[in-house]
Amino acid sequence: MADAAVREKSTTAEPEGELTDGFHLVIDALRLNGINTIYGVPGIPITDLGRLAQARGMRVISFRHEQNAGYAASIAGFLTRQPGVCLTVSAPGFLNGLTALANATTNCFPMILISGSSEREIVDLQQGDYEEMDQLAVAKPLCKAAFRILNAQDIGIGVARAIRAAVSGRPGGVYLDLPAKLLSQVMDAEAGRKSLVKVVDPAPAQIPAPSAVKRALDLLRGAKRPLIILGKGAAYAQADAAIRTLIEKTGIPFLPMSMAKGILPDTHPQCAGAARSTVLKDSDVVMLIGARLNWLLSHGKGKTWGEPHSKTFIQIDIEPKEIDSNVGIAAPVVGDIGSCVSALVDAMGGSWPAPPSDWTDAIKAKKEENIAKMASRLMRNAVPMDFHSALGALRSVIKERPDAILVNEGANTLDLARGVIDMYQPRKRLDVGTWGVMGIGMGFAIAAAIETGKPVLAVEGDSAFGFCGMEVETICRYNLPVCVVVFNNNGIYRGTDVNPGGGSDPATTAFVKDARYDRIIEAFGGVGVHVTTPDELKRAVDTAMNSRRPTLINAVIDPAAGTESGRIGKLNPQSMVRKKT
Predict the structure, then answer these.
(1) For a disulfide at 408, which of 101, 431, 450, 575, Cβ 3.0-4.6 Å?
(2) pTM above 0.85, yes or no
(3) Do strands 226-230 and 254-256 pair parallel, antiparallel, or not at all (unpaired)?
(4) Last residue of a domain, one of 364, 395, 417
C-alpha cells in the first residue's frame, strides 16, 4: 500500500515529464483503449486510483456495494461491446465483485474486474497481511481469463490482454490483479508511455465456412415448420439489420428470448412470442442465433419440444464447444453472428420460398387466441392490483416510450413481465439472464443510464429489490433518470405465507407487511410515490420519466397474487415427506 509520501510523488511526477507510476499507467492504458468509465467502490489500496482517474477526466461511478458495481460494469459491456470495468479493494471487496464477474462470464458480457491485492511474498507464505488472499487463484475458475501484473512496465500489456480476452470470441469476464506495491512503482515517464499497448481489432470477425452456410440453408429450405430463435448473443452482436433481413426474407417465424426482445419489434407479424409453447413443440427445423439450448430452452428436449428427437437444429455460435452441448446439431455455423447472418443472406440469392401457410396460419391463430385471453387481465383496475394489471400499465408506458430501457427482475415480476411488456427496439430489455440471479436491478439501471443517457424504468419484485436497494442513493447522488417500480406484495412469491410451526417468527418468505419502499429514496432527495391502482401507477411512471428525476414507486400488489417461483416452480423441489405431528 502506497504511503502518503509516495502518493504525493505519484501525483506530481507526471506533470514534470520525468517520472510516472503504476497509478497513472493503469489509467493511461485504459484511456488509450477508449475506456473512460469505471464502476466501483473506493478503499485501500485503490482509493487514489479512482481519484486520479477522475482527475484525468474519466467518469468514476462509486457504488455502495461492489456486487452492484460489478453488475453495472457487466451490463455496460453488453450495451457497448467494450469491456465494462469494475474497480474493487482486496479480499472481501474482490469477493463481492467476483459474483458479478462470474455472472458476466456465464452471460457472455465483456467485463474486467480490477482489484487491489496483498503482496505476493506475504500471500505465498500466508503471513497474515491485511485482507490477505490469493485472489488470482480464486478468480481463475470463475471467469474467462485472469492475470496478475507485478511490474509497472507490464501494465500496458496486462491491460491489453485483459481487454482482448474479454471481447474476443465468446465475450466474458476477466480478472486483473494489481498488488498494492505495483501502483506506487515509479518509472521513467517516456518509457512508461512506450510500454502502453493500444489493442488492434480486439474482436476480429470470424467468417463461417461456406459449406456450413450451405448446409444450414438446405435444411431451412426443406423445412415444413421452421422457427428462428434469437438469444441475447444476437442482441449483443448489434447485427440488427442483417438479422431483420434474414427473418423477413425467409418469412420464418421467430421467437426472441427475453434480452433479444426488440431486435425486431414484439409486434412484428412474424414474432411468435405469444405462441411460444406451440412453436417450440410443433416446429421441425429450428435455427438458433446467439441462443443456447440451456435450461431456459429446456435443454432442447423433453415435452416442451414435442416428440423425442423430432427436431433438426441449426446453431449459429462463435464458440465451437457450444455445439452439441445438449442435443445433436445437424448444421453448426461457427463464427461471429454478424458474419454468419450476412453470409446466410448473401447465399440465399434473390428469392426464398415462404414457409407453408398452414404453419404460419396456425401460429397466427394461437397468437390471437393467447393475446385475447391476456387482454382482459391487463385491463383490470381492481384494488389491490395483481401482477397482470400492474404490468398492463407499464406495458403502455414502454409502448409510448420505445427508446426507454426496461430493467426487470424478480420471480413473478420477472416471469410475467417477459410475456406482457412488448419491446420495440434492440437492447432495451435488460434482465437476470442465464443464471436468473437476483440483485442485478440497480446496477443494471445505473449503467444503462450512464452508458446510453436514456431514461430507465426498473421493474423490481420486492425480494429482488432487497438485494440492491441501497443503490437508490447512488442513483440520487448522480441524479440519474431512473424510475424504480417495486411490486410490493409483502414477500417472496406471496405475502400470505405463515410459519408452519405456529411460532411467533414470520414465515421464511414473508416480509414486513405494507412496507413503504418509496420512503427510502426520499431520504436521499429523490421522489417517492405510493400507488394502489394501475391508473395511479401509469401516471406516476409518466411523471417520473418526463421529469428524469430519480424516483421510486411503491406499487401495492395483492399479497396473494403470486405463485411459487413464478413459472419455474418445477425447479424448486418439494418435500415428499412430512413429519407426523
Answers:
(1) 431
(2) yes
(3) parallel
(4) 364
